[in-house]
Amino acid sequence: MIRFFRKKRFNLTDDNKFMKYLLYALGEIILVVIGILLALKINTANGLRVDREKEQLYLKSYSDDLAANINELDRVIKKSSETFNAADSLLRFADGQIELNDLMTIQQLVGGSTSYTLYLSQEGTINDIIGSGDLGLIQDDSIRRSMVNWRANLKLLREYEDLGKDNQLQFINALLKETDFYKGMLRKPILDQQTAESLRSNRHFLNLLSGQIEYARILNDFYLEQKEQLTGLQSLLQETIVE
Fold first, then answer.
1. How far apart (Å, rounded) are the C-alpha atoms in residues 192 and 198?
2. 139 in the Ramachandran plot: left (φ > 0), alpha (ψ -120 to 50) or beta?
3. What is the pLDDT of residue 160?
4. Cα–Cα distance between 175 and 199 in angstroms, integer?
5. Contact 65, 125 (CB under 8 A)
6. Whole-angstrom distance, CA of residue 213 vs CA of residue 86
7. Helix residue ranges, H only, the chain
8. How many Å apart are CA 134 and CA 125, to the nearest integer?
9. Cα separation, 142 vs 237, whole angstroms
10. How many angstroms separate the Cα of 121 from the Cα of each of 118, 176, 191, 223, 226?
């Protein structure tokens, strides 16, 4: 009987050691799991911090590009307006709607009508953002959509600028055939009274002149619309950028 109780007590002692070991092992596992979760949380927090810092750098750089683009738009708006006004006045003169008796004024209108407008946009930051696949870093939906829309608008704008360039080249070629265009380099009149009157009835010249008017008008409208959109976008960026 005594041997039975001794054996039983020995088994209980072994069971107690096993339970302690089991609890210790469970504690080790829990600590490891907690460590992994904390590491993941820290890594996630660090990743988010890096993303936000990168987003801020993009937004600040993009804001600088927008400021340059708005200044450039002011230039091309002025230039396209001048081209439109000169070509429109020349066409009205040819149609007899206005009288111009001064050959120098007519020549100035001819020269002003030959202008071509090209919007030299700054696209470095937006190309970096989209090209690197970082567009998703931009949290504000309005800013992100504006970036995508701006690129689409630029593509359409370039198409009209190309058409305007083609018309301008044809217009200059017509002037080369009908006037002493080379004399302009010598600071001499390129027109005489007979040439001026001939241009008023030259259908090819007048059709190209009307093209100068139309493309200048279309581009000017585009530039004005782009300036309004970029100015609004810049204001939105200033609210988003953390100084």
1. 10
2. alpha
3. 95
4. 9
5. yes
6. 9
7. 2-94, 103-113, 124-131, 141-178, 193-200, 203-240
8. 11
9. 10
10. 9, 31, 37, 11, 11
Q: Which two tokens stand for residue 57?
A: 């750098």
Instruction: Tell me which residue has tokens 């070629």.
Output: 173
List Cβ neighbours of 180 (8 Å cut-off, separation of 6 or more): 188, 189, 190, 191, 195
Q: From its phi and psi, is residue 96 left (phi > 0), alpha (psi between -120 and 50) or beta?
A: left
- Residue 62 in contact with residue 126, Cβ under 8 Å? yes
Whether the Cβ atoms of residue 229 and residue 152 lie closer than 8 Å to each other? no
The two three-digit tokens of residue 202, written as one number: 């030259």
Cα–Cα dist 77/195, whole Å: 31
Q: Using one digit for the tens of pLDDT, what is the confidence trace for 87-130?
A: 999 999 999 999 988 899 999 999 999 998 999 999 999 899 88
Question: What pLDDT score does 218 carry?
Answer: 96
65-71 CB contacts, 8 Å cutoff, 24+ apart: 65/122, 65/123, 65/124, 65/125, 65/126, 66/230, 66/233, 66/234, 66/237, 67/234, 68/122, 69/121, 69/122, 69/226, 69/230, 70/227, 70/230, 70/231, 70/234
Backbone angles phi and psi of 46, in degrees to 5: -65, -40
Which amino acid makes up residue 195?
Answer: T
* Euclidean distance between CA atoms 228 and 70, whole angstroms: 9
